[in-house]
Design goal:
This is PHOP2 phosphatase. Belongs to the HAD-like hydrolase superfamily. PHOSPHO family. Helices cover about 40% and strands about 15% of the residues. The chain is α/β, with parallel strands linked by helices. It folds into 2 domains: about 1-15 and about 75-125 and about 140-240, HAD superfamily/HAD-like (Rossmann fold, 3-Layer(aba) Sandwich); about 20-70, no CATH class. Strand 2, helix 6 (about 100-110) and strand 3 (about 120-125) form a beta-alpha-beta unit.
Length: about 240
C-alpha cells in the first residue's frame, strides 16, 4: 500500500512565490513598470525569461540569486511535514509539480536538505548561460485550454501515473496539495478515493467551492489546510489505517 503525494511549490511548500521573490535581487528591489506590465495571461514563463535578462543586464550573478532564494520561508509546519515524509518513505512516493523552475527548486530543497524527500520534480527547466544569465523554458507543450501555455499539471500527473503503472507501481490514494488556479485541472482528474488538499483562503479552495455551488463538484474528497501540520495529521491517519 503506497500513497502518492503531489505537491505544488509556490505558496504551498514555500510561503511565497519564488518567481516574485527573486525581484529582491533587482536594483531597488523592484522591476521597471514596462517590464512588469509586459506579462500576458498564460505566458508567465516567457515573462520570467525577460525578468532574468533584466537581472543579468544589471549584473546580478548566480551566487547572489542563490543566496536570496535560499532565504525564502517555508510555509508554517512544512519543515516538520517534509521531515515526517522523509522518515516514512516506505509509505509515500512524493513529487513536485510546479510552475517555478528547476534552478530555484533545487537550490531551496538542497539548502534545507529536503531534496531526498521528493522522487521527482516536474517544473520549467532553467539553467545559467555561458554569459551567466539565468534562462528558463516551458516545461512542455499541451492542448489543455484550461492551463497556462507552458504547463498542464493534469498531463504531468497522468503521464507520471502511466509510467509508474508500467513499472508495476499503483497507488492506494493520491493526495494533491496545492493553492493555485493551475492546481484545479489535476484535482478534477482525481478519483473518488483520492484527496485534494487546497490551502485555506487561496484560489484553489475558492475554485473548488465554486464548482460545488454550481452543482459540478470535484469527484475526490476535499480537505482544506491552513498549516502543514493539518496535512501531517491526515498523513499520520493514513499510515495508521
Amino acid at each position: 500500500m503506497k500513497f502518492l503525494l503531489v505537491f505544488d511549490f509556490d505558496h504551498t511548500i514555500v510561503d511565497e512565490n519564488s518567481d516574485t521573490w527573486i525581484v529582491k535581487c533587482a536594483p531597488e528591489k523592484k522591476l521597471p513598470n514596462g517590464l512588469r506590465n509586459s506579462y500576458r495571461p498564460g505566458r508567465w514563463t516567457e515573462y520570467m525569461g525577460r525578468v532574468f535578462v533584466y537581472l543579468g543586464d544589471n549584473g546580478v550573478k548566480e551566487d547572489e540569486m542563490k543566496r536570496t532564494m535560499t532565504m525564502i520561508p517555508f510555509t508554517a509546519g512544512m519543515v516538520d511535514l517534509l521531515g515526517f515524509i522523509g522518515e516514512n518513505k516506505e509509505s509515500f512516493d512524493c513529487i513536485i509539480v510546479s510552475d517555478s523552475n528547476t534552478v530555484f527548486i533545487d537550490w531551496i530543497l538542497k539548502a534545507a536538505d529536503f531534496h531526498k524527500v521528493f522522487d521527482e520534480v516536474f517544473t520549467n527547466p532553467a539553467a545559467f548561460s555561458s554569459t551567466g544569465y539565468l534562462t528558463v523554458q516551458n516545461f512542455h507543450a499541451h492542448h489543455c485550454a484550461k492551463c497556462p501555455k507552458n504547463l498542464c499539471k493534469k498531463k504531468v500527473l497522468k503521464e507520471f501515473l502511466d509510467k509508474q503503472l508500467e513499472r508495476g507501481v499503483s497507488y492506494t490514494q493520491i493526495v494533491y496539495i496545492g493553492d493555485g488556479e493551475n492546481d484545479l485541472c489535476p484535482v478534477m482528474f482525481l478519483r473518488k478515493d483520492d484527496v485534494a488538499m487546497p490551502r485555506q483562503g487561496y484560489t484553489l479552495e475558492k475554485k473548488i467551492s465554486q464548482l460545488a455551488k454550481d452543482l459540478s463538484p470535484v469527484v475526490c474528497s476535499v480537505l482544506v489546510w491552513s498549516s502543514a501540520f493539518d496535512i501531517m495529521s491526515y498523513l499520520k491517519l493514513l499510515i495508521k489505517e
